[in-house]
Amino acid sequence: MTIFGPALDVRPLFPRERQALLDLLGGLAPEDWSRPTVCPGWDVHDVVAHVLNDYMRRLSGSRDGYFRAVFADDETLPAYLARVNGEFVEALRQISPRVMGDLLNMLGRQLDDLWAGRDLDGPADLNVSWAATDVGSPAWLDIGREYTEFWVHQQQVRDAVSAPGADDPELMGPVLDLFARALAYTLRAEERPEGTAVELEVTGPAGGRWYAVRRDGRWEMGPAGAEPAARVSMDQDTFWRLATRGITPEQARERAGMSGDAALASAVTTLLAIVA
Question: Residue limits of the Mycothiol-dependent maleylpyruvate isomerase metal-binding domain (predicted)?
Fold first, then answer.
């Protein structure tokens, strides 16, 4: 157990999630590729190109040790990512859906091989900033973050083309579990006595309950040793959209059940599990 909670191994799920994406893309009509998505300025083709960029960037960095990030003057990490993601997407607008699908299939299997060789309890290649900024992330959390990234972008495509989601509990459950690991970091500005606990409940077939507990002057993920000072409950669709800012914290509060310490409960609804 760490401040992030128990380890979660999502590696067996990557091939299933990817095949669901490829099956979805293979059934799209030509006009579907131009449908707008929740990502500002990006259509379906652009979101798929972004997923391909994620594959290529992780293989280049984590497997090949090839890092060529060049930040502009005074450019923050979110600004840098927005810029380079946009540049890649724009460049791939000349690439056909079939070519992108072939590349996703080939490079995805290479990513599977990369993750299979990782020690889950070893250090992450890339720290997960939305879970902690002062403690290094374990590899399982880094790999899990990549799984959530791929799953979310698939859902964005499904939303855009009105296709049923890849939301069976085996695929979606780990996404919610990983997003919940942002709970302790979300509460970081809230000072409370030692042992204070907060409960997050996500309802639905893929949901669950998670707790953040105040220990040694910080919030950590773990079992509650006392009655929670605040409880927040929301359905699984609301939670993943909140965590990725598909909806706002205000919209999440309208859909959530909240009780106990009002400031703690309100803070929970600001949970963010992406770099933004």
Answer: 16-157
